[in-house]
């Protein structure tokens, strides 16, 4: 007789309860543990074998999940040489699943969880631009398409859940994880969040091209004290609900099946044990029915960091009681859960509740019916040409043109020599961002590669010199860089930052640009997780290099490759053009060249304000009206405001109107505007709508983004854009911490960025 839990025709709830009733305490605890997947196998001489430690864990109660089985980076110690190809990755997961199913008493498959912030973090997978660039596209449908591609690549190797999207609202860009976020605005992040969930999870989780999305980091992680990673967050519940929690709520409503609490504390309570957030709000008010998994080491921090637990057992009990279902790393749950129940310190029902959620997700993912991957399919779809083309298109749409003096861009393909200079001109890994695996050199297109490709057949027109490193004070490359610049008609300075973790692969010769291997490798990493800064200036001697080149009196175009805003007033004042490319991914070099030479008209718009000086922080656009006007030395306005970005054409706005002009709190108005391409080139405009509540019972931002649309227009073409304005756009969190739409006057602004455009008046009438 077929066991009920193995009968796919039975309801999921019935299967879960049957399986739960068969499990021992050790087996239940095992399902709540996630260990490191790269430690489950060895890859030697092309052969994959399972480790004895993994086999032992399977026999002693099992493992609920494996983290980063296919991940490769310095932390895992997995390199290009020792890592798994797309086919081998699928084969390794199959070996792991087969052993777990065939050598455990109940044959429960393992949940394979992978990092996929901007592409599956596995060797051979497509590396898309970082989320800060993805947000800058303002193209929700394009991002949804990317998420489908990421889900396909991940599931084809057996990965069933991803630890993305990152929905943190950035408040201080000194924070090293700024690059992992979409920006500073909760509405925009919320739109991207919904697209992510829909793209990753599709119509059903039990398919071979979908994965479960894990929302992170819940919550307030982007608002840490001083921009320091995992620092305390000083925020009241009203702001939490209205700003930081909004994208998470939207993603939960879209059906997200997993969520990860943040490392930080809020008002003295660590998110890992915050029952008000995890139980009352997330599960109670929002109705979230998925799994909650910690970040790595988060439970350890309760006893050694936050110091709210006496020891590891206390920390584990607090976490699972607060609503944690699974522990990434598995250390605390693995050591203490069983003993806590046996000592009567932890109720078995608390454990059962967590196990139910884990098993429910596994059943919904179809792992009991189809636990194995298809190596042939993995080899076919991972890193495909289709996905490569998609990566190039997204990178191009995420590039923001900040300055274009006298229309110096686009450049001519037929005249003049170009000197490509700077530490990010030809170092591929520097343009990939954090959370990427090592890549073979021929897979990543650098800016130098892209420009050479654009001028194919004219190699004499392109000169190159690195000039300096990202960090350090060596100027030994200046002389060679200046000699190249002297021979050129136009100079492209490719500078910025790096989130490249040290793979020990050597460095470059600053005098020639050639690769060289040294005894002690050099790390240029100045951004990424755990790399927080006190400055937003260029690291090292990069600014000095740009200044020396500028003295030659030739046109200088600065291209930033970086993971956080750069505040360099001298460059903004003296460069002829400034292009912000963020970390544009593996096809970033082609995308930058497409923009520089006019094959792509830049349409990226900032999703994060760029200050004039770090001393202005915080400078996010939607701060309160009461935050003041200026400092002694400078006003409080950013150098480039939220939503800003230039184009090679011009767009004109006209006929702004709202109908009707008076509504009730439950009615909707329609705001319409006509947008015209008034220039000579086809281009895309991002039309942005902001709402301002003229007077309210609690203080409000001067403006809030509540709608946007990206439209492509031919020269001379006009199109009407309309936005609905109703409860969702007008409400805020009131005095009772509940959403409210107050009667009164609102101003609706429509324009090119937050400081642009005209407004129309909308009134919400009082109900009789």
From TrEMBL:
Keywords: Hydrolase. InterPro entries: Cellulose_Degrad_GH3 (IPR051915), Fn3-like (IPR026891), GH (IPR017853), Glyco_hydro_3_C (IPR002772), Glyco_hydro_3_C_sf (IPR036881), Glyco_hydro_3_N (IPR001764), Glyco_hydro_3_N_sf (IPR036962), Ig-like_fold (IPR013783). Residues 685-754 form the Fibronectin type III-like domain. Pfam families: Fn3-like, Glyco_hydro_3, Glyco_hydro_3_C. This is Beta-glucosidase.
């Amino acid at each position: 007789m077929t066991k009920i839990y193995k009968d796919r025709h039975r309801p999921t709830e019935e299967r879960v309860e049957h399986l739960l009733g068969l499990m021992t305490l050790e087996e239940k605890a095992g399902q709540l543990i996630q260990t490191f997947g790269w430690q489950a196998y060895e890859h030697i001489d092309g052969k994959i074998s399972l480790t004895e430690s993994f086999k032992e864990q399977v026999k002693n109660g099992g493992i609920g999940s494996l983290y980063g089985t296919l991940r490769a980076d310095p932390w895992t110690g997995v390199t290009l040489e020792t890592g798994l190809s797309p086919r081998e990755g699928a084969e390794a997961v199959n070996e792991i699943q087969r052993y777990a199913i065939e050598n455990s008493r109940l044959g429960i498959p393992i949940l394979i969880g992978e990092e996929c912030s901007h592409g599956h973090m596995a060797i051979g997978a497509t590396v898309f631009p970082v989320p800060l660039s993805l947000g800058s596209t303002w193209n929700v449908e394009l991002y949804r398409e990317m998420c489908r591609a990421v889900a396909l690549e991940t599931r084809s190797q057996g990965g069933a859940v991803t630890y993305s999207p990152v929905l943190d609202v950035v408040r201080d860009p000194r924070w090293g994880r700024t690059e992992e976020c979409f920006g500073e605005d909760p509405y925009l992040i919320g739109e991207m969040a919904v697209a992510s969930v829909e793209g990753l999870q599709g119509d059903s989780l039990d398919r071979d091209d979908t994965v479960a999305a894990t929302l992170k980091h819940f919550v307030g992680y982007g608002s840490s004290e001083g921009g320091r990673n995992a620092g305390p967050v000083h925020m009241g519940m009203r702001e939490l609900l209205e700003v930081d929690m909004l994208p998470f709520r939207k993603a939960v409503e879209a059906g997200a099946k997993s969520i990860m609490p943040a490392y930080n504390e809020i008002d003295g309570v660590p998110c890992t044990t915050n029952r008000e957030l995890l139980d009352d709000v997330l599960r109670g008010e929002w109705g979230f029915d998925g799994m909650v998994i910690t970040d790595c080491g988060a439970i350890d921090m309760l006893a050694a960091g936050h110091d709210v637990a006496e020891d590891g057992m206390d920390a584990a009990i607090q976490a699972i009681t607060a609503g944690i279902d699974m522990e990434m790393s598995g250390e605390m749950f693995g050591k203490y859960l069983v003993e806590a129940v046996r000592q009567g310190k932890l109720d078995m029902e608390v454990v059962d509740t967590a196990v139910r959620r884990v098993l429910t997700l596994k059943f919904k993912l179809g792992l009991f019916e189809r636990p194995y991957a298809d190596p042939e399919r993995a080899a076919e779809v991972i890193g495909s040409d289709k996905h490569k083309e998609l990566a190039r298109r997204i990178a191009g749409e995420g590039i923001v043109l900040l300055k274009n003096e006298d229309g110096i861009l686009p450049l001519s393909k037929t005249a003049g020599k170009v000197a490509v200079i700077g530490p990010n001109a030809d170092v591929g890994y520097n343009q990939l961002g954090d959370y990427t695996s090592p890549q073979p050199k021929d897979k990543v297109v650098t800016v130098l590669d892209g420009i050479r490709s654009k001028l194919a057949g004219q190699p004499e027109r392109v000169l190159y010199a690195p000039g300096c490193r990202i960090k350090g004070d060596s100027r030994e490359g200046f002389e060679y860089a200046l000699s190249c610049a002297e021979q050129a008609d136009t100079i492209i300075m490719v500078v910025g930052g790096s989130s490249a973790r040290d793979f020990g692969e050597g460095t470059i010769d600053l005098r020639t640009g050639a690769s060289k291997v040294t005894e002690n490798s050099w790390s240029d990493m100045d951004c990424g997780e755990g790399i927080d800064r006190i400055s937003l200036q260029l690291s090292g001697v990069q600014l000095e290099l740009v200044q020396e080149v500028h003295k030659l009196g030739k046109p200088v175009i600065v291209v930033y490759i970086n993971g956080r805003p750069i505040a360099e007033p001298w460059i903004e004042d003296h460069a002829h053009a400034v292009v912000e490319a963020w970390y544009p991914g593996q096809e970033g070099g082609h995308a930058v060249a497409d923009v520089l030479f006019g094959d792509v008209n830049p349409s990226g718009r900032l999703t994060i304000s760029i200050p004039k000086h770090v001393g202005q922080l915080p400078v996010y656009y939607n701060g309160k009206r009461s935050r003041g006007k200026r400092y002694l030395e400078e006003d409080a306005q950013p150098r480039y405001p939220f939503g800003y970005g230039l184009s090679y054409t011009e767009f004109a706005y006209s006929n702004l109107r709202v109908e009707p002009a008076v509504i009730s709190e439950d009615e909707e108005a329609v705001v319409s505007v006509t947008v015209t391409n008034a220039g000579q080139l086809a281009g895309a405009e991002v039309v942005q709508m902001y709402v301002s509540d003229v007077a309210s019972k609690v203080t409000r931002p001067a403006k809030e983004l509540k709608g946007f649309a990206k439209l492509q227009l031919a020269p001379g073409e006009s199109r009407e854009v309309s936005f609905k304005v109703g409860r969702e756009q007008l409400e805020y969190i009131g005095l009772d911490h509940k959403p409210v739409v107050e009667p009164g006057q609102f101003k609706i602004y429509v324009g090119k960025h937050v400081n642009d455009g005209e407004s129309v008046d909308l009134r919400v009438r009082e109900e009789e």
